[in-house]
Amino acid sequence: MRKVMLYVSLFCVFAAAAFCFGTAANADDSPDGWVKGLWIQAAGLPKDAVIEDFSDGDDEKPWFVYSWGKGSDGPAVTLGVGRFPSSADIGEKLLNLDKKVLREFIGSEAFWEGPDAKKLTFTQAPEKISAGLSYPCQIVRYAESDMGLSHMVLFIETDPFLFMAEITWETENKKFKKSDGEKILENLALVEQEGMKAAGPDGDLFSLKDGRLFMGEESVEAEVNEVPPEIEGPVRFWSAVGADDSGLVRENETGVRFFAEDGAFLAFLPLESADECQDIIFSPDGTFFLLMSGSGIRADMTYILYDPETMEKKIEISGTRGSAEWIDVGRFVMTRIDDVRETESGNFSMAALRLSAVMYDTVAEELVVLKEGTATKNYWCGGLADDGGSLIISEDSVASEKDWGDEEKITTREIKIEIPAAG
After folding, report:
1. How much of the chain, in percent, has pLDDT values that exceed 70?
2. What CATH number should be reported for the domain holding residue 42?
3. Are the beta carbons of 85 and 60 closer than 8 angstroms?
4. Which of 63, 68, 236, 333 fits 49 for a cystine, CB–CB 3.0-4.6 Å?
């Protein structure tokens, strides 16, 4: 069984996952319009081209995968386009046609150790491709004989980003020629985009009516959460929605939806499972929110900071359940999990975690350690003190590290620390 698949680890996708969002021409006037800044658009694709997969609102490393035609077991041709942060070292190696740098982008270890790697060609892109893009471009051609696949990869080095486009097709497909691949790459266009709010497939079909979630006219069984009234901003409700047995909500529609006061749909944050969202904590002015992600029964959580306008992920921190709290519009404090200790009893407990009290500043984009855990001390964030200018921290301590397994040997005291100046 063969399928045309994108074999690029940086894209982290496989076209074999055959779920589609409609044709590239008809799904939306600009299906990749949410990408902000310089972006590479796939133009002039065949009429039957569909979006196989995409990066769900990740502006740091956005990517799209298109496919079209019918192969022996899947689509006949796949095109993947993606953007990555630029690197002077990688850019220089690409310009010098250093094949060693290609290991970071294409092929498995088995490929590079096999005979196919010796047949790989790495050259400057033909002028008909590079002239239209106005940036240095290189092209790689190679095949994976064990999979029956051929690849054509284009690299484009711009000042802020490295762009990559890969075409994959079945080697036995004699109808698809080298000139066809070059024509696709020739039609690629670099454009500057303002970006727009992230939205899920058919996002506008979701709405709130009388406190209940609806998809079109059908009621969806999902909890609707109200944003506290003291929080500013347009988002007043949110709901984590997952695919259900009824088929009403599809797998690619799983995630958190945000709604306005009148119940109108505002934005969508895709997730693998609705259960990933244990809670959402908005900053006082509504310009950021923390997603508390993890299992419903575990004490350890992952806190992910998002910008609700773009759904861009800012930072991810491992911490204890329910410990995060905003202390002003731009900063939050929480209990961070630094490590797991080995206790003498071998049983897991919260004492087995090394904990520190930390603060994150969204303006400075800086994580500040307020009290760092040690081999014999743990620090928990207890929130703002009554004076509003200091934080309450709980300190757990033991005489020896091996004592963490015995609760009777743990001493707890409460301390206050002054909140550092903002910025």
Report:
1. 86
2. 3.40.1000.10
3. yes
4. 68
